[in-house]
Amino acid sequence: MATILEKSGFNPDRKLKIVGTSPVKHDGPDKVTGRAKFGADLMLPGMLVGKVLRSPHPHAVLKSIDTSKAEALPGVRAVITREDFPDLPQGSPAGDLTRNCMAREKVLYDGHPVAAVAATSESIAKQALKLIDVTYEILPHVIDPVEAMRPDAPILHSKLRTKGVKGAENKQTNVVERLDLAIGDVEKGFAEADFVVEREFDSRPMHQSYIEPQGCVASCSDDGQIDLWCCTQGTHVFRDRLADILKMESAKIRVTQSEMGGGFGGKTGFYAEPLAVVLSRKTRRPVKIVLTRNEVFRSTGPVSGTRSRIKMGATKDGSITAAEAELIFQTGAFTGSMFFNAPQAMFTRYALKNIRTVSYEVVSNRPKVNAFRAPCVPQVVFGVEGIVDELARKIGMDPIDFRLKNAMKQGDTTVYGQTFGPIGFVETLQAAKACDHYKSPVPKGQGRGIAAGFWFNRGGDTTASLTVTPDGSVTIMLGTSDVAGSRVSISMMAAEELGIPLDKVRASLADTSVMGNNRVTAGSRTTFSSGIVVIDSARKVIKELCRRAAMIWSVPEDGIVFEDGYCRPASSNVGVFEPLSIAQIAAKTSASHGAIAGHSEMNVTGEGPGFGLHIVDVEVDRQTGRVDVKRYTVVEDAGKAIHPLQVEGQYQGGAVQGVGWALNEEYVYGEDGRLQNPGFLDYRVPVASDVPMIDTVIVEVPNPNHPYGLRGVGEVPVVPTLGAIGNAIGNAIGIRPQSLPMSPPKLLELIEQAEMNGGGRG
Amino acid sequence: MAKKSHVTITVNGDEYEVLCEPGQTLVDVLRNELQLTGTKEGCSTGDCGACSIRLDGDLVCSCLVLAVEADGKSVETIEGMADGEVLHPLQRKFLELNGLQCGICTPGILIAAKALLERNPDPTETEVRFWLAGNLCRCTGYDKVIRSVLAAAEEMRRG
Asked: Where does residue A130 rank: exposed (0-12), middle (13-18), buried (19+ CB within 10 A)?
């Protein structure tokens, strides 16, 4: 069957009425009035409060857990521990998942859950946690990934063996995997270079820091049916992973998504949700668990910290000849960093023939990392873009011109083997060069930096259905999550297809019992993928509308055309009929063949890669080392901005998340292996007074695989931030920082170093 | 179990009587006893501003106020911001200019911004930024939040 994917119907000359405007988003009114229901907002009759007991130790054997005193406390309805979960094989995906939610043989990080309680009130639940007696046998711990790679390092998982290394079968290790990715001949490439730059970089874990802590309500019925209401980036993934770790059938679990108060990748996996489910199963009452901010920091997220050594070479005339990288990613206590993104994406945007990368993923006694916009990419692009700038300076080229000279274009093949279709990197660089910010002189006392970034964008399993109501208005069911307003963008595409006003379309988020499987909302896939299945559904509906019109008029089906919301005779040969609106046809469905609906299930492909360039001006206080971001411009290819205000919002939000990561945000551990800054006072995300307005330039180089040409825009806006700010600081103080975050103590050291060198590079 | 206290609070003009544990915060009572879940709890330590409300007119983090301290006082939350079906200009501008993405920080920001505009009807961008520095937003990068507040202020000045 020909699908929309084989024939997207993309027409660059199509006149659009709704796509490309910025109407009020449909989830907006409930969110400005307090009506919107987020993860912590559901109340059910008879609901109990769940609380989690967490390990204070970074690494210990769980010798015994005595829950008897807690169970005896009046108001306590259940206490659960590892004994309440199936024992799944260590090192298997489900085995890791269950052990991260509830420690089994050992605790592996400060904050690792060891027990949970359900009680009639929060204060009783908290009191009960204090009555649980846990005996730990404390083990030596390791926090730093490089230390964790040493042969004498404390071992987290006795059965772990390094993937991708020959002869590793008998050796205990903390290295999960070694990944080699290469093309061409780097030795030859470096030999051709006139300039070679090699530098080392590092970054610390930062937290996604969604303002809504994870919250859920689980309710288990007497026949074992489980209902879970939660904030999630993927209901189906939550359902199926729950089924894996509880060893039950997916059909017996229904996951319903609440509104989600930010995720950024951090809500692609679950934490306390299985504990609420098991507590509800034991008590047969609804159980709510809402994490505290302390728990969010200690046990969810964060982002992978990295060490990297990166080397690049270029000729005098500005061609990059080779690039090489050795990368170490810390993944926390369990694998799952998605570190493989980094070697694939770090150099992709430059047409390089010779690349060699070696990447390692390493476990240590920290919370398991989770996805964050463009997982594992921004922190290594921080290094790449610093070196690219340094090469441009050595050659004497404008940094945008240098990037333009090496820019990937349609037909170029990436290190991971994809040959690009139409892409907009050149157009993005040209737009950046032409924008007011880049053309304006750098204000005195400030430094300007630029950096470029790339993200694959994603597709994947996606489902939707679209139903025409009897009055001709349209409802849409989406299987994906809405993280920032995709419901309206997707509704706009449906309204455009059907030729009806946006006000006649409403999209809802389905629970898992309604729709077929969907991948998590992540990787900049949802407006693209759900847009495609909704457009496909709408086109099926149009086909059916034409069939019904043909029945009403008693003419052949191919005698009907659909235009601007009406079925019309294709020509006067068909006959003379007044055009029928969707509403007119919908009013007569009982007399024809019943309701009109279209649904679509696809593994969506054809995502258009995204590219961006950031320009930032900073001022560095030479006495304190504080960085003030004075001006910031994001230039990025959106393919087609369906809802420009929302696209701008993605660019601006990404940039400011990058400002925090670049300047402040990091996990700080004590010698005791405990997280020292698990709160927003000591873990400081940017506040309104820290940043300027963020200017945006939306470049539109259409992705022909999508009927309206769109590319995802969620990830790219974060990718260049760290590099751009690093380059700006480097230009301001004379030495380009190589360690994230670029916090005042580190910058004061660099400023001093630059002064000793006679003002840095001058 | 500590003895509970009888507390009378007026919320958005309606009087409520509640029995509170001594340690129960105002945000807990608003959300879990009165089921007014429009006020959000993001950190419980007064750092994120998601639970911003007015207590006898003062802008406070309701996670830092004990419910018993609110006895006899008047509370204004997001649920009371619109005048019936008519949205407050701030609410309308946040919608029109897309001053919200996920929306979790929005109730707190709206309450805080309203308090600002009552005190200073013509704030500069910098004044808005510093006033809202206690309200964290992780999605928007603040740009459209600030623009929405400035646009609402302008409209309200015009009357």
From this structure: exposed
Q: Tell me how far CA of residue A378 lies from CA of A425, A460, A688, A715, in angstroms.
A: 17, 23, 23, 10
Strand partners, A602: A462
Note whether A526 and A481 are same-domain residues: yes
End-to-end CA distance of chain B: 53
Return the pLDDT at A1. Answer: 42
Per-residue pLDDT tens digits for A742-756: 999 999 999 999 999
| Contact indicator for A459, A525 with CB cutoff of 8 Å | yes
The answer to whether position A269 is within a domain reads no
The answer to whether A103 touches A299, Cβ cutoff 8 Å, is no
What burial letters (b/e) apply to B117-148, b meaning 16+ CB within 10 Å? beeeeebeeeebbebbbbbbbbbbbbbbbbbb
Q: Are strands A566-569 and A48-54 parallel, antiparallel or unpaired?
A: unpaired
Please, are residues A606 and A548 in contact by the beta-carbon 8 Å criterion? no
CB A240 within 8 A of CB A250: yes
Inter-chain touch B82–A27, beta carbons under 8 Å: no
pLDDT of residue A762: 46
Do A398 and A537 lie in a common domain? no
The mean pLDDT of A675-691, rounded to a whole number, is 98
Tell me whether residues A694 and B47 touch, CB distance under 8 A.
Answer: no
With tokens 């430059």, the residue in question is: A350
CA distance A41 to chain B (A): 6
Q: What is the distance between the alpha carbons of residues A612 and A600, in angstroms, rounded to a whole number? A: 32
CA–CA separation, A601 vs A621, rounded Å? Answer: 55
Query: Average pLDDT in the A192-214 region?
Result: 98
Alpha-carbon distance A111 to A53, whole Å? 8
Q: Which residue of chain A is at minimal alpha-carbon distance from B104?
A: A261
The two tokens of residue B86 are 């008519």
Specify whether the CB–CB gap between B10 and B71 falls below 8 A: no
pLDDT average, residue stretch A640-649? 98
Burial pattern A280-301, b for ≥16 Cβ within 10 A else e, equals bbbbebbbbbbbbbbbbbbbbb
Residue A612 lies in a domain: yes
| DSSP 8-state class, residue B30 | I
For an interface test with B, the pick among A24, A651, A687 (most B C-beta atoms closer than 10 Å) comes out as A687
For residue A134, tell me if it sits in a domain. Answer: no
With beta carbons less than 8 A apart as the criterion, state whether A79 and A90 touch: no
Which of B76, B139, B146, B147 is the mutation pick for testing A, counting most A CBs within 10 A? B139
Q: How confident is the model at residue B1 (pLDDT cuts 50, 70, 90)?
A: low
Phi, psi (rounded to 5 degrees) for A52 = -115, 130
Nearest partner of A713 among A642, A643, A633, A647, judged by Cα: A647
CA distance B72 to chain A (A): 24
Give the residue numbers spanning the domain of A673.
377-457+608-756
A488 and A25 in contact (C-beta within 8 Å)?
A: yes
**Is A47 strand, coil or helix?**
coil
Q: In what order do the strands lie in the sheet with A474-478?
A: A505-509, A474-478, A460-468, A596-604
Answer yes or no: do A585 and A503 share one domain.
Answer: yes
pLDDT confidence tier of residue A3, bands split at 50, 70 and 90: low
Residue A9 Ramachandran class (φ > 0 left, ψ -120 to 50 alpha, else beta)? left
CA distances from B57 to A279, B11, B39, B53 (A): 42, 12, 16, 9
Percent of chain A whose pLDDT exceeds 90: 95
The complex's ipTM works out to 0.98
* Average pLDDT rounded to a whole number, residues A628-647: 98
Tell me what pLDDT residue A2 has. Answer: 44
Same domain? For A600 and A631 the reply is no
Token pair for residue A528?
């693209």
pLDDT at A9: 82
